[in-house]
Specification:
Largest sheet: 4 strands, mixed
Strand content: 5-15%
Strand order of the largest sheet: 2-1-3-4
């Protein structure tokens, strides 16, 4: 007469299925948003390379106190191909890391296009780029503990990590 006894369940089941689909869509929309948030948080924490400082005054004080050379790396870490190559082939090399830990204070002066950077750091980096007349990336500058410029290398250092360490060792020994 009035149809199947299951007919009254069909609308309820259909609504429940629609709600389940809607909640699944919301979850799938939420996941990329969550990934973006964590990705941005991660980039701000990993702004400088491991073992590298970003504060010039702190780096200068550390170099003076520990009688080490101060290596300034003017870089465009997220867009400059030669900077990325320098990081991969020299700065990430275990030989360089070992040498640097004993003899250098490392300062990254970054000019990123996509990575977040504080206004204070951006201003400091621009002032230092002006002070040292930086015209290309990467540019490496080595200072002694008193802040005197000992050496500058504009562009990629092509001779490899051993030659780079040898150049730094000459500067260190005077």
């Amino acid at each position: 007469m009035y149809g199947s006894p299951w007919a009254s369940w069909r609308p309820a089941l259909a609504v429940r299925e629609q709600l389940r689909e809607i909640s699944q869509v919301k979850i799938f929309r939420f996941i990329p948003a969550l990934a973006i948030v964590f990705g941005l948080a991660g980039t701000s924490f990993a702004a400088a390379k491991s073992g590298w400082l970003t504060d010039y005054k702190q780096a200068q004080q550390e170099a003076k106190a520990n009688h080490k050379l101060l290596l300034l790396d003017f870089t465009g870490s997220d867009w400059c191909g030669w900077c990325i190559k320098m990081d991969r082939e020299v700065f990430s090399n275990p030989k360089f890391k070992e040498y640097a830990s004993k003899n250098l204070v490392l300062l990254e002066l970054d000019f990123p296009r996509r990575k977040p950077q504080s206004e204070t750091e951006r201003k400091q980096n621009e002032e230092l780029a002006g002070q040292y007349r930086i015209e290309a990336f990467p540019t490496l500058v080595v200072l002694n503990g008193d802040g005197k410029k000992l050496w500058e290398n504009p562009g990629f250092f092509p001779d490899g990590v051993e030659a780079f360490i040898a150049e730094l060792e000459k500067l260190r020994k005077g």
